[in-house]
């Protein structure tokens, strides 16, 4: 570890020094007339830094990356024309280190700074520091950032601008007792929110007084850790809410326009994971009303640049102001997809003083439908906790209707220090069904190995009938996947037809394996294989397809085969482009991408339509003999409380000899600035406590044992 850190520091120093000579020459050189800025420093990391730099490069503007010691080899640091190290790995010492970033601005001669999203993008002090350094902040003015970034102040501005607002307390909630008093006045359920919050941190729903007191305490702690501001507000929780937002764009000459809405209702832990544009709920009349209120709010606060006004809507199409994000949103690509506009380019032109280059009428004549899936390195089976590690194999999907914004590549490290987003996967179609079909294909062919991730869950969501019909709310994931176990890849559902496809493809792989062992070439006769899936044995017979069926199959590199299952026969064929991790095939005329997660002499672990399954494959005689094998033993972990991920043990609620019941709090682990309460699964007595408060824990490290 020490050696790796020293290498990172040296790399930082080398990269920083390499920028000095070029910067000295550029600092006094004005930007060419046809260039908006001389040089843009992107004060961010990962995919958003790369995305901003792509537009800058297209416009001929040189770019500067900032990076931490942990990110010395990161994609964004190498993608920029110059790169400067701004500090150690923790974000507070690097990407939130305003003095270090200002020094990077001066050192490189950057005359504009784009903040991306997150980190300092909504920090008024950073806006002022950038401007004091003589650079242009590519974003809204300080006043707007200050007022809209504070949820209490923004609600007051919204009400004054006659924007629909959610009932709640108009000021800061003093303490837990005050929170209970407010909740009793407006009625449960309520939402506790950090005034300076964002990204789902410092936010919880409470359905009764007990939950409210606990939520207030946890949210206060999370907000203080994440934002340095523990102020809380409380508002009425809208039941069956849909999260719908309006993208706005204003110039420095007083013009403001709104874009078609985005729906962001599919969320986990109040963090968006699937977004689409336009919303299945919104009518043209509702779109106009929301857009006009968003524009009114922007004009009231003197807004310019890109921003987003977020609303909650109920099934009756009533909508209420939620908050305003004074930055580029994570999900901005879907707006770009249906309007053909480059929002980063608009931000740069506005920052340079140019008037809006798009009209309201143009924006309301959008085309098609777009959807974004946020792919995170996280473990749904462990409550969506981040998964740390290296991307051992990484292949992004591609195609004419696919866009993948990422800041990683094969070999990249997913660090415990930063947000675990891998990429934003976007598809577009002429309508919602075609967009869904494109997203299914893209997720099926997205190869990610080395860390746990949420792509299987995202893929499974797309097949839920309610989602296909657009009947969604912010509670969708919680309702359809109520427990961590239900969202685990090996528990995700497959329809009967999808399971038949899986079995047929497994049989095809078995036949190909057997043919290689016997010298290669096409299969000439029949071959039987017993497939064991979830304890059930199925006999499959694989044979060459008849000439008539083979002629009807899609062209491909593989032999057309018939796979006979007990209840049906399927026609399968490898269509080419397959690899050790991915099989492209056609089954009964439907093109599929099957992921091979692991394989052994008798075992395959496959992923189909998001669901992961382990299949045992045997010749009929071998399958018969397995009946006489002893059942494998399993260990009971229900009486062991483990840390679900690397983190800090901030609270220990039990001691040796103490009795606990199912659901009792045992410990609190903080990771990624989120506090995770660990509870007992079964009743028992504490037999051992194997960690102390303040300890830094590893994933799966035992904290408490029960007996």
Report a brief summary of the structure.
The protein has 707 residues and is an alpha+beta fold. It contains 20 helices and 39 strands.
Would you give an account of this structure?
The structure is a single chain. The chain has 707 residues and is α+β, with helices and mostly antiparallel strands. The protein folds into six domains: 2-138, Rossmann fold (3-Layer(aba) Sandwich), CATH 3.40.50.20; 140-165 and 241-367, D-amino Acid Aminotransferase, Chain A, domain 1, CATH 3.30.470.20; 167-237, ATP-grasp fold, A domain (Dna Ligase, domain 1), CATH 3.30.1490.20; 372-492, ATP-grasp fold, B domain (D-amino Acid Aminotransferase, Chain A, domain 1, 2-Layer Sandwich), CATH 3.30.470.20; 496-628, Glycoprotein, Type 4 Pilin, CATH 3.30.700; 640-706, RNA polymerase II/Efflux pump adaptor protein, barrel-sandwich hybrid domain (OB fold (Dihydrolipoamide Acetyltransferase, E2P)). Helix content is 30%, strand content 30%. It has 20 helices and 39 strands. Strands 9, 10, 11, 12, 13, 14, 15, 20 and 22 form a nine-stranded antiparallel sheet that branches. An eight-stranded antiparallel beta barrel has the order 24-25-26-27-28-29-30-31. Strands 3-2-1-4-5 form a five-stranded parallel sheet. Strand 29 and strand 30 form a beta hairpin. The chain is globular, with a radius of gyration of 27 Å.
